[in-house]
Design brief:
The structure is a single chain. This protein has 183 residues and is α/β, with parallel strands linked by helices. It has one domain: 2-Layer Sandwich (Endonuclease, Chain A). 45% of the residues lie in helices and 18% in strands. It is built from seven helices and six strands. Strands 3-2-1-4-5-6 form a six-stranded mixed sheet. Pfam families: DUF5753 (PF19054). InterPro entries: DUF5753. This is DUF5753 domain-containing protein.
Length: 183
């Protein structure tokens, strides 16, 4: 996965339940990796943190995150960590190659995000692939038809999401609300 992130020209991640890995801060990653063996936890968190660097490198890919509202509201960590996570997402979304979109809970229709998480990778010198991650395994799809279906799913999702600007406003409001709950 790391090599695909490093060599991709475009990455789209659909995140129905969690903040996408490339947008996660260390404390949030630590909170969602509770099933990792204790002796591996810190190295996994460090690896996740180093993966974020691809978004700011010289040949940084275009990164588009489509995040269900639920992932921004679910308490998988303490409030202070969630507030920091949301603020970090806002800062990262300022990069010209990063787009964050929120799929509202009240979309009032089924969308491909309801089927689960996936990541689409596109490359300059290789065919695109789709990645699915489960609890203890991962699957990569390379079949042209399957990849095209996931591209079409992205188009459907973009139509159902808030605009990038509205998404960032929503995230900022959510961060404010979480910070107020701490006081």
């Amino acid at each position: 996965m790391i090599e695909y992130e490093r060599t991709a020209t475009y990455i789209a991640e659909i995140a129905p339940l969690l903040i996408p890995g490339l947008l996660q801060i260390g404390d949030y990653a630590r909170a969602v990796m509770t099933e990792a063996p204790p002796e591996e936890l810190e190295s996994r968190v460090a690896m996740r943190a180093s993966r974020r660097d691809i978004l700011i490198g010289r040949n940084a890919p275009e990164f588009e995150a489509i995040i269900m509202q639920r992932a921004l509201e679910e308490r998988v960590c303490d409030a202070a960590t969630m507030a920091d996570q949301l603020r970090h997402m806002l800062k990262t979304a300022e990069f010209p190659n990063v787009t964050v979109r929120v799929l509202p809970s009240m979309v009032n229709r089924w969308t491909p995000a309801h089927s689960g998480e996936f990541v689409l990778f596109e490359f300059s010198k290789a065919p695109p692939i789709v990645h699915f991650e489960q609890l203890c395994s991962a699957v990569f799809l390379t079949d042209n038809k399957a990849v095209e279906e996931h591209r079409q799913a992205l188009d459907t999702l973009r139509e159902a999401t808030m605009t990038p600007e509205d998404s960032l406003n929503f995230i900022a409001d959510r961060a404010d609300a979480v910070e107020e709950s701490i006081s």
